[in-house]
Amino acid sequence: MTRGSRYNRPPTLTLRDVSEASGVSEMTVSRVLRNSGDVSAATRAKVMAAARRLGYVPNKIAGSLASQQVNLVGVIVPSLSNMVFPEVLTGISDVLDATPLQPVIGFTDYRPEKEETVLFEMLSWRPSGMIIAGLEHSEASRRMLENARVPVVEIMDVDGTPIDTAVGISHRRAGRMMAEALIAAGYRRIGFLGTKMPLDFRARKRLEGFRNALRSAGLEMADQEFYLGGSSIAKGREMTREILARSPDLDFLYYSNDMIGAGGLLYCIEQGFDVPGRIGLAGFNGLELLEGLPRQLATMDAERAETGRQAARIITERAETGNAATAQDREKMVIELTPTLQYGDTLRR
Amino acid sequence: MTRGSRYNRPPTLTLRDVSEASGVSEMTVSRVLRNSGDVSAATRAKVMAAARRLGYVPNKIAGSLASQQVNLVGVIVPSLSNMVFPEVLTGISDVLDATPLQPVIGFTDYRPEKEETVLFEMLSWRPSGMIIAGLEHSEASRRMLENARVPVVEIMDVDGTPIDTAVGISHRRAGRMMAEALIAAGYRRIGFLGTKMPLDFRARKRLEGFRNALRSAGLEMADQEFYLGGSSIAKGREMTREILARSPDLDFLYYSNDMIGAGGLLYCIEQGFDVPGRIGLAGFNGLELLEGLPRQLATMDAERAETGRQAARIITERAETGNAATAQDREKMVIELTPTLQYGDTLRR
DNA sequence: TTGAAAGCGCTAACAT
DNA sequence: ATGTTAGCGCTTTCAA
Question: Bridge-partner residues for B223, per DSSP?
Fold first, then answer.
């Protein structure tokens, strides 16, 4: 049977082609192309020339099957739309770029079923590690991650029990910190504006932490406004109008993200409100992209790039030391990063 | 030699484990798990139960090697940071989600060498298709794409010769359209503000088209300002201050993207300029996220999501009809989408 | 409807 | 420094 005859598809080049073209055995060609083992400079040159001339591209499918090594790291995040995940991915890339590992990205759209599908799909490629947003997963997803025999890093949340390792900020603490800051600044009639999305656990935890801190200070949330769909400046503007129409005496508005916070800020400025005197405002995320607004919104930076970098580093280290250290035989580890409060121009000190 | 003994790594489950657990041959297990061929309901049930119980995850590496089919589509874009590529990716995902194909994303950071590396890496996985931003590639990259024997769709630009198929808007035409609109509106002293990045070919083509249209109308660009680094509202504000300090008589500012355009808009409003009377402004991209600013910036929408959808559709169709139709034996095809001019509140009609 | 055999393209392990 | 052999886990093909 001649090569390729099993399929009615034109075969791409193989090691064998390079071997024939260079007069060097397949095995040695393989060694040259992987920079592995001792190969004389002369043969190396012959092989490289032949490979380049033919335009040979190695087949990683075959290579990975043979070596039982796949230099991919699965990364699962909710979406790209809200600006926060691109920064995490950048952090991950920055670290992996210096290694043989390559990130492969998947999206859940905040839907557990989709997370399950994407995860199954990724694990079927036998990656060297998994980085996944959040600590809340379906039972099936947890089991898959536990059985996968690869290092697993859950990112952007540490409020809960990780499968293996978690890196990120505590959103409960972030909410609490913001509440404490604005109480200290003397604000008392506090409103909250945020997403209705029941599956954004991190937003929910921030709200919980915020509310608990208010209670500890003997305060209650005075009013709140929830919305569906994507965050935008326009949405924040509209919601702010509504909550203030209903509760004109609010003296602080806490937004679940900077995008809607920016809308609120623009609205308040237009209305001529004294910010931060008559009313204070704060968002969450520390979006650089909003710098340059007429005033700087108070916010809390979530250490996104650093989270990505640390997660990638953990995977890299463990992938190097062999796959001995996996979810099974390793103690759970939590790395909590500390968010920074930025007062900006919308929160009195 | 017992299974796995070649490696000192604990093996994950294989078909053979499911076969043994269910008392059905490996081959039939494979058929069940792929929904292929005729299998009796009884055996199917047995197999599914065993697979689920064991938590079996198929090994796509092995499967793809055997079947010579890889259900991956490589997608290469410059970056995620500037908001435009996430939308393209969303369009691609929307279409691929209904197929067995999965996107795999790579970034070039606008660097041809990195594009080359990423492309080589991707092709080594033998994907079913490639989607890549732009028409400008290094010689090596072009050759790789030509020899890859997979459908190739170049996106977001049609000003040039595609390797195989191109989908997107003409940036030259976009620049020209904007120039014609503002000339028709009576603006005459025109300034340009944009990125210095020599490798952002699309931004450059827009500028070329814009300039050519000015010349056709007997006008010259009155002043221009270039910057390095990422686009932000703050940057746009700063640049606008500078260009107007230097050339106070400008009556129109054309920004190479909406982000810096937004900064310019905020600056002009603050300065109390009559926009669009005394001075008109326009950006490029149609970023939804900026809706909600005090005024709506004139812009031109680049059909990003639609570009992604069409590209994905092309790959899907060709992947189905077998790999016969590849870059080699197919005529080059260009699909030009038409951008829409949005006047907003900053461009007189 | 089910099974057995061969082989996808490469690399680990073991010669030489 | 180079070559030989076996096999990675699955699917195609062919036989029963």
Answer: B191
Chosen for mutation from B9, B61, B85, B104 (greatest number of chain A CBs closer than 10 Å) is B61
| Residue positions counted in chain A | 349
DSSP-derived secondary structure letter, B315: H
CB-closest option in A57, A233, A322 to B123 = A57
Among left, alpha and beta (phi > 0; psi -120 to 50; other), residue B227 is beta
**pLDDT, tens only, A73-99:** 999 999 887 788 889 999 999 999 999
* Strand bridging mode A190-195 / A223-227: parallel
Q: What is the pTM of this model?
A: 0.93
Dump pLDDT digits (tens) for A323-341.
Answer: 444 555 668 999 999 999 9
Cα–Cα distance, B254 to B264 (Å, whole number): 10
Nearest by CB to B292, which of A64, A234, A292?
A234
- Contact by Cβ (8 Å): B92, B308: yes
> Does at least one atom of strand C sit less than 7 Å from the CB of B43?
yes
Cα distance between residue B154 and residue B98, in whole Å:
22
Q: CA dihedral defined by B151, B157, B160, B166, rounded to 10 degrees?
A: 20
Whole-number distance in Å between B22 CA and C7 C1': 26
Beta bridge partners of residue B189, listed in sequence order: none
Furthest-apart CA pair in chain B: how many Å? Answer: 85
Task: Report cis status (omega within 30 of 0) of the bond before A276.
Answer: yes
User: What is the set of domains in chain B, with CATH numbers?
Assistant: 2-169+305-339 (3.40.50.2300), 171-301 (3.40.50.2300)
The number of residues in chain B equals 349
Count other C-beta atoms under 10 Å from residue B98's C-beta: 9
Name the token pair of A314: 């953990």
Give the separation between CA B255 and CA B253, rounded to whole angstroms.
6
Neighbours of A98 (CB within 10 A): 9
